[in-house]
Design brief:
- With 304 residues, the chain is mostly helical.
- Helices cover 69% and strands 1% of the residues.
- It has 15 helices and two strands.
- It has helices at residues 3-21, 30-40, 47-60, 76-93, 110-114, 116-134, 144-158, 163-172, 180-205, 210-237, 240-243, 249-252, 258-262, 264-283, 290-301, and strands spanning 103-104, 107-108.
- A two-stranded antiparallel ribbon has the order 1-2.
- A hairpin with a 2-residue loop joins β1 and β2 (107-108).
- α4 packs antiparallel against α9, α8 (163-172) packs antiparallel against α9 (180-205) and α9 crosses α10.
- The longest helix has 28 residues, at 210-237.
- The protein is globular and about 50 Å long.
């Protein structure tokens, strides 16, 4: 099986996991439930839950199933939760008050399909339902301290000192020149924070050491930066058909990006260098996971 087919299989497996945690669409609030589920089922690479699962496997693969190794099912609620949080951010990003995009993954965005008001509520609902979902991991392991720490990471990397904090600065500076240090801040929080949460949670639930968890956080930070710079490159070079969404959104919204600051050639070179740093750090860990290494390389070279 080739690497591309392997990724497709892993993505399908993640979709099956996510489906098990989606709420039933009944009751008087079923409209928002339908909007939540429809947004979650819109597809995507499922990068965050896959990174989480593969980081968990990095620290457990090849080891005997001793008492210190929890059942892998403990990670499934967190895989669903991280994708719920990511999806909630996309719903809000697409709103008229943000990027005002009408297409996401080749489909009408949530606010176009369900209305502005219901899209706001669906994004809010997914954000809090993610925490409720993650808490279900307590029922799946005796290592409740690991679950508690993982929930703390999930909340911290999502909130005002994580993804939302990055989004705040991004929104405030839209249409204005952004100095490099603030752009780095936006990228580290808005994109990098959830990737850091994904990989750190995988490590924590697998029982990794503090030193290993810090290394994983740095790896994920590099992955997030390379991912976002590549996103900026694709906004200039890709077609709407490739991306499944309008291209040129950054220019349309007068956004400063890595490409506008550094130029496209340097951006491409920096993506390669940053991703190689992530691979180097990965090789410094005691475990081995070839699929995880391949995934990190793919994220830096993707064309959609």
């Amino acid at each position: 099986m080739g690497a591309k087919d392997d990724r497709k299989r892993r993505t399908a497996e993640v979709n099956e996991v996510l489906e098990r945690f989606l709420p039933d669409e009944d009751g008087h609030q079923k409209t928002v439930l339908a909007a939540m589920n429809d947004s979650m089922r819109a597809g995507g690479k499922r990068v965050r839950p896959i990174l989480m699962q593969e980081t968990y496997r990095l620290f457990t693969m090849g080891k005997e199933q001793a008492d210190c190794l929890p059942d892998e099912s403990v990670i499934e609620p967190f895989m669903a939760a991280i994708e719920m949080i990511h999806t909630s951010s996309l719903i809000h990003d697409d709103l008229p008050c943000m990027d005002n995009d009408t297409l996401r993954r080749g489909r009408p965005t949530t606010w176009v399909k369900y209305g502005y008001d219901m899209a706001v509520l669906a994004g809010d609902a997914l954000l809090i339902y993610a925490v409720e979902t993650a808490a279900r991991a307590f029922e799946r392991t005796s290592y409740t301290d690991r679950v508690g720490r993982a929930i703390s990471i999930l909340a911290g990397k999502t909130g005002i000192f994580g993804m939302i904090g990055g989004q705040v600065v991004d929104v405030e500076l839209t249409g204005r020149p952004i100095p490099r240090e603030k752009l780095d801040f936006i990228y580290r929080l808005k994109t990098g924070a959830l990737l850091e949460a994904s990989m750190m949670i995988g490590a924590v639930l697998a029982g990794a050491t503090e030193e290993e968890i810090r290394a994983v956080e740095e790896i994920a930070s590099c992955v997030g930066l390379a991912f976002q710079i590549q996103d900026d490159i694709l906004d200039v070079t890709a077609t709407a058909q490739q991306l499944g969404k309008p291209v040129g959104s950054d220019e349309k919204n007068s956004k400063t990006t890595y490409v506008t600051l550094e130029g496209i050639e340097k951006a491409k070179a920096d993506v390669a260098a940053i991703s190689e740093r992530a691979i180097g750090l990965l090789h410094g860990l005691s475990g081995s996971n070839p699929f995880l290494e391949d995934l990190i390389r793919m994220l830096a070279t993707r064309e959609n």
